[in-house]
Design brief:
This protein is of the alpha+beta class. The chain is 37% helix and 19% strand. A hairpin with a 3-residue loop joins strand 5 and strand 6. It is globular, with a radius of gyration of 22 Å.
């Protein structure tokens, strides 16, 4: 079936405004395994990248933020043209073992319920990548402000992995070799180059975001050959043992038994509590830093 949008349409929407003012380079990583660094290439224009050929056996990832020099480090990023998020179908991928969508319908519902309609939706083979185009190229004076906003948006879409200014995403018009089959192509499903956002659109975003929720199905190990249990399964067994021990001790618990159970619960829950506390602290930091990025983005009304 012919696709309505191609790689050139995608790259032009992302980078045309940037290349009108700058020039520089789009970083591309090519590898047969995501666990290996592979080959890094730098394309001096989005037109050259749009016409480049890549073997289907390779993962092809590109830097959403262009580089000022042919160097991969974050310090060589000075401008941003869009915000982005990655959504996974199934566990064990970028989003993590518990942060994923269990069906295409569930993923689509999350996109529709997000308060800001994405300018671009890319189907990545086993998930979706969303992009929110900015009205103007924004100079990135404080990467932590951008990353705080990206983290907030991605977490609400069940992606708990770190999202940095140096993020790499799948390039449309290439294959996802990790999942061979008829539906592993990475392609542009939706693109509206006129749908762009300014500062006012991101104000008070946290209060408008849907609360992130875990999928209804439990995460399972993706290593079918090892026979090893997943961390989630191990945790569930330990929690079950604690519950059984509590039930055995009821209705009367001695002081010693309470101390023992408390130690076990704290030991198992401490990581969760720390994560929750970190999220609360991160939320405060986001509230403080998002205003900085909002002020740097033009505040005229976005086209709907």
């Amino acid at each position: 079936m012919a696709q309505k949008f191609n790689r050139m349409d995608f790259l032009e929407a992302l980078f045309d405004q940037y290349y009108e003012r700058r020039g520089n380079f789009i970083l591309v990583r090519i590898t047969q395994s995501l666990d290996k660094p592979g080959e890094i290439k730098y394309f001096p224009s989005y037109e050259k990248l749009a016409n480049a050929k890549f073997a289907d056996k390779n993962h092809v990832l590109f830097g959403v933020c262009p580089r000022e020099k042919m160097k991969p480090e974050k310090e060589h990023i000075r401008y941003v043209t869009a915000l982005w998020a990655g959504l996974d179908l199934g566990p064990g991928r970028f989003s993590g073992s518990q942060n994923y969508f269990s069906s295409t319908a569930e993923l689509t519902t999350a996109i529709l319920e997000f308060p800001l309609r994405p300018s671009i939706i890319v189907r990545s083979g086993q998930g979706a990548h969303l992009y929110w185009l900015l009205k103007d190229v924004m100079e990135l004076s404080k990467p932590e402000a951008l990353e705080g906003l990206l983290s907030l948006m991605n977490k609400s879409l069940r992606c708990g992995s770190p999202v940095g200014a140096d993020s790499l995403m799948r390039l449309p018009g290439t294959a996802n070799p990790g999942y061979p089959g008829p539906h592993n192509d990475c392609y542009v499903e939706f693109l509206d180059p006129d749908l762009r956002y300014g500062g006012n659109d991101f104000k008070n975003l946290e209060g408008r975001l849907p609360k992130p929720s875990l999928p209804l199905v439990p995460a399972t190990s993706t290593d079918n050959d090892s026979g090893s249990e997943s961390a989630d399964s191990s945790d569930e067994e330990e929690y079950a043992e604690i519950v059984e021990e509590i039930e055995d001790c009821l209705p009367g618990l001695t002081e010693s038994q309470l101390d023992t159970l408390a130690d076990k619960i704290v030991e198992r829950m401490s990581g969760t509590l720390i994560d929750a506390l970190a999220d609360r602290i991160a939320a405060k930091v986001v509230n403080q830093t998002v205003e900085q990025i909002v002020q740097a983005i033009p505040s005229s009304t976005s086209k709907r």
